[in-house]
Structure formats: C-alpha cells, structure tokens
Specification:
Length: 302
Amino acid sequence: MKRVLIGGGTGFIGTRLSNLLKDSGYTVTIISRMPGLGRVTWHEVEKHGIKEPTTAIVNLCGQNVLDPTRRWTPGFKQNVWNSRINTSASLVRAISHASPELKPEVFINISGVSNYKPDNKKVYTEYDECKKYDYMSELCIEWEKAATIDKSLGVRNVKLRTGVVLGREGGMIKSLYLPFFFGAGGPVCEGNQPLPWIHIDDLCELIMFSIENKNVDGVLNAVAPDIITNKDFAKAFGRALWRPALIPLPEFVVNFMFSQERAVLLTTGAKIEPKRTIETGFKYQYPKIYDACRSESKLFLF
Ligand SMILES: NC(=O)c1ccc[n+]([C@@H]2O[C@H](COP(=O)([O-])OP(=O)(O)OC[C@H]3O[C@@H](n4cnc5c(N)ncnc54)[C@H](OP(=O)(O)O)[C@@H]3O)[C@@H](O)[C@H]2O)c1
C-alpha cells in the first residue's frame, strides 16, 4: 500500500494535495493539532514516531503569516516560527528514528521564496547562494535547515521553495476575490515588484512527481516559469473576472495593515526561475498567469 503522511494536510494546499493523492491510489494520513478520523496528532508523532510503512512524508504546516486579523506581535511571530521549524524538526526526528521497514522513501518540505533577496533585475535559480537579510529570509533559511535529513539515512530530501499559490479556496486569490469581483481590485503599490507564483494544481502535481520520481532530490523552486510583476497578476486576474483592475493598494496601507516586517511579502519580490524543477522533467499544466487565474476565477467553491 502506498501511504503518505501530510503535516498540515488540513490546510489550503493540503486539502487539494490529499484529494489528488487519494484519487491516484494513495492512502493519506494527516498530522494535525486536532485528533480525528484519518489523522494523527503532532504529539503522537513526537511520542511514537512513524508507526506504519510510509512511502512519503510531506510537511505543509505553518501558521498563516498574512492573517490580517492577527497583529505582528512577538507572540504571533513565535507561532509563525514554531509552526514551521518545530514541525519540520519533529518529522526529521521521526524519520531518523524509524526502523528501515517504516522509513519513507522521501521527505518533502515546503517553504517560501524569501531566501531570494528582492531585486527587480536579477533572475535567481536554485543554484544561487542564499543569505539571511531580514526576518522572512531567516525564517525560510532556518526552515530548510530544520527540514534537512542526514544523507546516510538514504531518504530523498526535497525542499520546495514555493511562490504565491494560486487557488480559489485559499491564499492570495481567496483574499483578493471580493475586491476584484466588485471592480475595486488592482496592484499592490505601483505593482512593479516581481510576483513569483504557482497554480495550486501544479504545486500538488509537483509534490506527487517528487514522490514518484527517484531522481528528484534537493532544492526545487516551486514557481511557474512565467516571471511576472504584481501588476501583471492584477491585470490577468481582473481580465479573468471581466473586471478592471486599476485601483492600487497603497504601500502605507499595506504597511499599516501588516506591519512592515511581513508587508514585504506583498510590497517586494524577486524574479525566480524554476531551473532545477524543469531539469527534473516536470511539466506545468499552468505555465502562464492568465490561464492560471482563469481556472481559479469561479465565484462559487462547489
Ligand atoms: N499559500 C501560499 O500561497 C503559500 C506560499 C508559499 C509557501 N506556503 C507555505 O505552505 C504551507 C501550507 O500553506 P497553506 O496555505 O496550505 O496553509 P494554511 O491553510 O494556512 O495552513 C496549513 C496548516 O498548518 C497548520 N497550522 C496552522 N497554524 C499552526 C500553528 N500555529 N501551529 C501548528 N500548525 C499550524 C494547520 O493544520 P491543523 O490545524 O490541522 O493543525 C493548517 O491546516 C505553509 O507553511 C505556508 O507558509 C504557502
């Protein structure tokens, strides 16, 4: 039996991934803070480790950084940090202690693209060196470190640096849907900042591709090959909804709403190429921004 354990599998990406894996014949067990059918808790993983033969472990856990209802307090920052670093470290420990018949073939950890310092000119690939330059970059770098498995264990270790995930049920599209629907959408600031992005179906397919292909290992940029700006996204999403997208969200409003340290996720960006991802042979279903927006523009979720 092919079994996948998904940390944070109850979330936006996790729900779509679980459905894809189940439709493809996998048994999915979710690791959650809340017990339930088809779930194990983080506490159980910490205490008992991996209990059944497992094909792959995927970590998608993380407190939503851009939750507008939460102030950027030291306590909230700690939640953001712990929900990523501690869960990845806990899975690495469970894998290290698992007996050979239970050990997964691959551990896949998702993180963000803040490793790459915002720059409107340079195009980054997975081969570029990354150094800490602010809180978000430190978070991404430490997250990848926490998700690192000792090579001697023989478990493939895929680290997905993921751009903004475009899907109707969550993330940026869910937050922006109503303003765009009522014709009040537009770019963030002047909109010239790069916006690395990926369609949710491509991200989930890339995770399944990483599970099934033994040549896939190491860092992969989980971004679409179409390098765009925030303004390009606003235009494409507006067009997909048959609406204008001309009203910019001023920088001072974004900084006021989120506080500057996390607002950089919206007001700045880097140009990122998925060089290694393409080298693995992965094929995108939505390489172009308009097609991605079009496919996730329906009003109702059913
Ligand atoms: N969405 C994007 O555009 C995007 C882009 C780049 C990277 N990512 C990363 O991808 C991962 C998944 O994203 P998503 O949009 O699917 O996230 P999501 O829906 O907001 O949440 C994922 C799961 O994380 C768990 N979680 C939330 N807060 C937690 C906390 N304080 N402590 C422990 N667990 C917590 C929850 O599971 P339980 O409630 O079941 O415990 C939740 O279902 C995140 O790490 C995110 O940073 C997302």
